Amino acid sequence: MEGNLEALFRPKSIAVIGASEKPGKIGYAIMRNLVEYGYEGKIYPVNIKGVEIEINGRKFKSYKSILDVPDEVDMAVIVVPAKFVPQVVEEAGKKGVKVLPIISSGFGELGEEGKKVERQIVETAHRYGMRILGPNIFGVVYTPAKMNATFGPTDVMPGNLALISQSGALGIALMGWTILEKVGLSAVVSVGNKSDIDDADLLEFFKTDDNTKAILIYMEGVKDGRRFMEVAREVSKEKPIIIIKAGRSERGAKAAASHTGSLAGADKIYEAAFKQSGVLRALTIGEAFDWARTLSNLPEPEGENVVILTNGGGIGVMATDAAEEEGLHLYDDLEDLKVFANHMPPFGSYKNPVDLTGMAGAEAYEGAVRDALANPNMHSIAVLYCQTAVLDPRDLAKIVIREYNESGRKKPLVVAIVGGIEAKEAIDMLNEEGIPAYPEPERAIKSLAALYRWSNWKARQKKE
Amino acid sequence: MEGNLEALFRPKSIAVIGASEKPGKIGYAIMRNLVEYGYEGKIYPVNIKGVEIEINGRKFKSYKSILDVPDEVDMAVIVVPAKFVPQVVEEAGKKGVKVLPIISSGFGELGEEGKKVERQIVETAHRYGMRILGPNIFGVVYTPAKMNATFGPTDVMPGNLALISQSGALGIALMGWTILEKVGLSAVVSVGNKSDIDDADLLEFFKTDDNTKAILIYMEGVKDGRRFMEVAREVSKEKPIIIIKAGRSERGAKAAASHTGSLAGADKIYEAAFKQSGVLRALTIGEAFDWARTLSNLPEPEGENVVILTNGGGIGVMATDAAEEEGLHLYDDLEDLKVFANHMPPFGSYKNPVDLTGMAGAEAYEGAVRDALANPNMHSIAVLYCQTAVLDPRDLAKIVIREYNESGRKKPLVVAIVGGIEAKEAIDMLNEEGIPAYPEPERAIKSLAALYRWSNWKARQKKE
């Protein structure tokens, strides 16, 4: 059934079982997201009353049963109440469906009785060679296929990060957050009760998925810890995995236990296993996405030498503090660094951090960024900018985008811009182009450090 | 000359010496900000050519010398080139001006020669009983007087935080940032070369300023460290002081030394002195403003019991982790906490963190927030919300604003909302009303912890 994950992300046709004509219903929201996000395969609504469903003027005839659909169906999204799910799964099996995201809740999360039904559904599915995602999920998104089969926000920004969430509520909130914050996604997967498809299965899919460069998991617990860690370790050798797992503190772990039924006190075991598997554990949502921006967009560095370019002494010092705390190596060769003297007034400093001074305009940044990109001894670049009247931050963004593209994007480059609304716009412009940009110097440096941590772990694995 | 600081923040009349009729010039930008931000005192442009200056259709006759102004002048903002400054200061003295923000650069920051001129200017000023702010600054803002005498952004949001910046470039960028991020300010002061008025003088003013509840300083170094620390300690007993001082790491300190001429290696001394003086040292700009939101808006807690209300188990656990790491005490009395069972379905949890569940709507939050505010044993409240379809985050914001106002704002309350554009709008609504709101649970908890840290330090001082 390995191939069925392919059907989860690139289905040629999708049935929505429990589709609704009423805005406000989940069975309508999924239809609407499929249509509005531009899914190009066939969409077959299934509704017991056979109602007509209209989305943005486009009319869909619905079928009373999936067995009535006059075509092959790769994926069937199930939205009917829990008590009808076993029968619907049976019918989907007869139809030859490959994968079943089950949105419906009311199973294992309610207790033993629900868990039993859940196991029966999985047995039925496996008898027909089908895989199940969920139940108790908000759906699945795969941006390369223009498929948004969720009842979450519509306009997911395409990119290279795969997001997996065990929590439905937080997962939907994070989808909205990625749109607001311009984080590009390849996929969003709500795993819910993980009755069948689990994190390890998804990691294996994303390992070889060309559209995914990094994976971010919000996790409350895993069922088969050993397998997860083995798979995570293999995947980490190819692509970085970032995990948010709350419950580090004693009281936090207790609260998590009552919330998810996972073992309290197990956090230290997770921590050790993550480290061994090359998994990057982020302590907060913000940190996870900060790292993800850099890890899903940038190439690995070819060496340890980092160069910091700045127009503000203060933010240069802040970045230097962060770099030293994170164990990054600031490039030191003054003969090489001297090239930056061409782009600054006499009171600037070409010692790393390179202070182009508050007078630095478009030409200074253009020249300095170009020189840093061109020098093979400078392996990673952090471009910092403190908004001044000399250079509109949006113009700086354009310069960085152009220079980075022209250089072929061969080395990591991160940006931090401190300022007001124009700075925010510049940051958005850069992130939309896949150049990680942040409103604070430390966040840029720490994200670059996360890339180095993963890259260094990988290098150590190869030696062993 | 103590009273002259009053003239820096509440001048009855302002002269702009070096005012310009040309948009793009600093001497124009300051005139424009004064007019557009609504300063209600008299404005007298001084321009050697006596040009007419038009701002938004309002025409200002300019005077060729400040001595020609037919009125008393409390404050004269000086924008003329460095070489004319000594003469202008002399004339301002003759005119009886009280305080001189000197925007002009080209003094001590250039070296010994400039320092000499700087000292002469200060001598002249003191001879006439005047005080000098700067030189090499971007100006001063005092929102209660609707005065924006800077060439930075115009629309500073009024509030209770005084911001002092030694760096001009970063200070202007941070002004823009506060507008974007809805941080309310009482004052912005650019101190530049600190030839006369320094951080300690300003702290003494803000100590008794009713419009200021907290002070945030971006500092690169201080000249008279002993006096600063003494004053900071006294002020901290009344109002919290947050300081950002870069240069913690060895290399960062070296870079700072070359940038500002301050001593490298002195950071440990600063660190110890800050601690002793009750100063809260923030490690990043973001952290500083996170704390400032809470410290400038909320009352002190009357006890250690913190209650966390959430609709998402996951963010509740994250907040609990942060609370435990920061040494906050989560309230534990189940008899008292049981009241929250009224606002949740049976599978919710009234154990702190209180999980209202993903089904929590307006009524659940309204009831829970009201009960938490009413219970005298619950000393501080963190309201967390993970955006769901059940409750629009903006409606949650309205509920929290109403309940907090009706309770009389007697205990600390912080909010975190995770989600997309509506969540961001809700966060902005809360911050505009002076209720600290953040996009991540940990940031809310850490800010509350900063309030506790300061409050506990204060309590210890009283015992000694």
TrEMBL record, chains A, B:
EC category: ligase
EC number of this enzyme: 6.2.1.13
Record domain CoA-binding: where: 8-107
Swiss-Prot/TrEMBL catalytic activity: acetate + ATP + CoA = acetyl-CoA + ADP + phosphate
InterPro entries: AcCoA-synth-alpha, CoA-bd, Ligase_CoA_dom, NAD(P)-bd_dom_sf, Succ_CoA_lig_flav_dom, Succinyl-CoA_synth-like
Family matches, as SUPFAM superfamilies: NAD(P)-binding Rossmann-fold domains, Succinyl-CoA synthetase domains
Domain of life, source organism: Archaea
SMART domains (alphabetical): CoA_binding
GO MF terms held by the record: acetate-CoA ligase (ADP-forming) activity
Name of the protein this chain belongs to: acetate--CoA ligase (ADP-forming)
